[in-house]
Known about the structure:
It is built from no helices and 20 strands. By secondary structure, it is an all-beta fold.
Amino acid sequence: RLQGDWSSDVCSSDLFSITNAWAFGTDSPTGKLFNLRYNGKKWQPVHLPGEPQALSAPSGSDLWAIGPTTKTATRQLGKRTDIAMHWNGHSWRTLALPKVSKPAIDFVVPGNVVAFGPKNVWEDYSLGNAGTCCLFGGIEHWNGTTWQSVNVPLPVVRMTAMAQDGHGGLWMTVQTGGTAAQAFYHLSNGHWSQLLPPSFVNLTIVPSHLAWIPGTRSLWAGGVGLAADGTEAEILRYHP
């Protein structure tokens, strides 16, 4: 299905060379976390200060992850301590995330992270309340020294994905809560714009994943199509 600049045909990898690859995850039977690095001959376990739940890797010497500390990772949401983690090619560094102003009964859940470089990183978070999870909380920008909160002037109920645009800007997929329930938001040089997914009779496209195509200004988007007779997988490509 095609409409406008979005077309059908997503993949991301933490493989930087045949001697440098990373894998993060959880062993399903045991629930035990694993962080592995491949050196060209074998996979070796690597100690991280936390559990990566969102990852962005501009290069083999610049990896960013967001997630709870190892000590608090098994706790219930709201009782975890979330941190940012940065691999500089030699070691992992821990960065505290900024404190979020919220009602006392709410808790913060980290979302996506997108790194352009060691001094240009974006992350979003959601807010949960009394067992309900989760509604959009906000986005924050790391400039190499501090985290700064960035206002989103467009309606957001949930933010599901973020990716760079290949030109210094940021794409997001969101649930707006409005008549056009799903949208792509774009931030470039401080300017916000909106692009709607393709529309079809009796089918609603719900994008939930984004992946920048390196070396271009194009992106892949993955999600589902909701129809009266069920759902189907959808893959879109953006051509600026």
